[in-house]
Each structure stands twice: as structure tokens, then as C-alpha cells.
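User: For a teaching handout, I'd like to show students what a predicted protein-ligand complex looks like in C-alpha cell form. I'll give you the sequence and the SMILES for flavin mononucleotide. Please answer with just the structure.
Assistant: Understood, here is the input followed by the structure.
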Amino acid sequence: MEVMRIGDLNIWPDVVLAPMAGITAHPFRVLCKRHGAGLVVTELISSHAIHYKNQKTFGMFDWDDEERPAFCQLFGGDPDTMAEAARVVVEHGCDGVDINMGCWVPKVAKTGAGAALLKDLCQAEKVVRAVVDAVPEVPVTVKVRSGWDPRDVTAVRFARAAEQAGVKAVTVHARFASQGFSGEADWDIIGQVKAAVSDIPVIGNGDIETPQDARRMLRETGCDAVMVGRAAMGNPWLLGRIGLFLETGVLSPEPTPEERVAVAREHARLMVVQAGENIGVRELRGLLGHYFKGLTGAPRLREALTKVNTLAEIEAILDGARERLTQTPPAEREPTAVA
Ligand SMILES: Cc1cc2nc3c(=O)[nH]c(=O)nc-3n(C[C@H](O)[C@H](O)[C@H](O)COP(=O)(O)O)c2cc1C
């Protein structure tokens, strides 16, 4: 495994936490970094909201030194607004800007942003150039899907143009926007993008659930790094387990129920420190259950965690759970949740 270089930054190991709205706020990014992720990225942030100085959006500039290099993902279809937003986040200390060209949800795509840019490569290129020119001091990266739909596989053409425009890495989520999260990712497109660019790293993304999946993607596509999304939810250990496996071939054990409880507790504590108890606990209701996927007793625990109002309640539930949770044999495990 080689050190991945994004501009002047060395990324090690070659394992990236996917940006995920509602999941990858600072507390979870830090936990993933502590457990061995090479790179973490904020969830998508609206360039228009930055332009209008939306307070809640400025609250999403929540990176700190522990997660550096800190990448911030922006979305928007207007080159000037994206350039302005990029300058603002860099002024707020972010080390790299990632442009979202993968989000298909109507709220984003209808405004000509996210994956909609894959339908208009000319506009996509303008956005990329504007951002690259606006923040020459940091690397700019782009996250794309295979294309908007199977009638037009744009990722290869776009990646070439993006490299020419000065982008320092491309991430490919190997699905079409029209698929949402359905169907299997078709990794072929990742290999095609890798073959098409000459000098920038390609990060492969889609359906990695295990260290073995990660190795298979690297071998089959020749990509430089892997990005892991849904399988990392409630499972920050996975990033480090993948890194270790890629480097040494050693498959470290999955976390014990006690470890899961301890890290879920830490996640809760970090969230409350960051967001305050009211907001933090509300956000945690949907997040903490992920830590117990596949364990006997998980459904009841998840249910209890969706009703909490205070950090003390969360801690009491987790303490009680430690005794009751046991590892379920692999055959009986719940499948990974699909958003
Ligand atoms: C809940 C959720 C939120 C997501 N939010 C974002 C986002 O903010 N920006 C982005 O580029 N992709 C987002 N994605 C897509 C992921 O980054 C990733 O591309 C996708 O989940 C495929 O990877 P996986 O199969 O490893 O999950 C999101 C995915 C999920 C499940």
C-alpha cells in the first residue's frame, strides 16, 4: 500500500471515511480518525447557505486539529458562489475542498447542484475551475457518480476534464445518480476512471463492507484508495481494520460488545460537548443504534436509544446493555442498513 498524495498532503492509510449527511459530523469523524481512517470529510455543505451567512451552516465548520487534514465538502451549481464558499471554508481552517457531484436527492439536484452537474459537463467544469482558482493554497477534489443514468456514463470524461482543471483527486461512487443506493455498485467504472487520468489519485467507493472487499476493489480497479460509507456507521473500527489488512494481510477481530458500548459512550459524550445536550441527544437517537448491529439484543437497545432525552439516560442504557449484549454468530447477523 502506497501513501496517497492529494496535492501536497500525504494520506495514510489509503482509507477514507465517506461524507454522509447527518452521520459524519465532527464527533464521528474524530472517532474514525482515532480508529485509523486516513482521511475524513465533512458532510455536504451548501455554498448558497454560506453565501447567505446561514448561522446553522457556519456551525458545520466543526473540524479541529485531531482530524487533519480536514476536508470540507461543498455543493452548488453556480461557479461564483462555489468559489466564494471555498474561500470561506479555507479561511476557517479547512485543508482541502471536496466538490459534491454525486448527490441525487431532488432538493439538491433540482438546483443544478450535486449529481445534476453530471448532466452538464460544461457547467461542471466551470464550477471546478472556479473553485480551483479561488483556493490555490489547498487541494480541491471532486466526488462523482458513474453518471446521471446508464445512458450517459460521464465519470470518465469528467475525471479527465477535472484533472486538466487542476483537481487533485477524484472519488468515484460506482453507481448512477438515477439508482440512488439501489442495486450493486459496478466497480468497472472506477478502473476506467483510473485508466483515464494520468497523475491524480482515484478513490473508489461503493459497497465496501469488509477489509476483503477493500482489497478486492483495489486489485480489480487499480484505484489508489477506498472510501467507506454505510458500513462505517457505528463501526469506526472498520477503517482501521481495512488499513491493517491492506498493509499486512492481518484480519483483526471485530470489536467486542464492551468495546462497542465504550465507543458509543464516547460518541455520545463528544456529541454533547459539541452540540449541547438538547441538540446532541436528539441527533444521537438515530446514530447510536448502529454500534450494535448484529448483536443479540440490538433491536431492543436501538428502540430504547431512540427515546432518550439526556446524556445520563444514554449512559444508563449503555451500561445496562453491556451485560446483555452478546456477539451473534455471523450467519445470524443483520445485514448492513441501506439508506
Ligand atoms: C446517510 C447518507 C448520507 C450521505 N451523504 C452524503 C454527502 O453528504 N455527500 C456525499 O458526497 N455523499 C453522501 N452519501 C453517499 C456516500 O458518501 C457514499 O458515496 C455512498 O454511501 C456509497 O458508499 P457505501 O456503499 O460505502 O455506503 C451519503 C450516504 C448515506 C448513506
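For the handout, you might add this sentence: The chain is about 40% helix and 15% strand.
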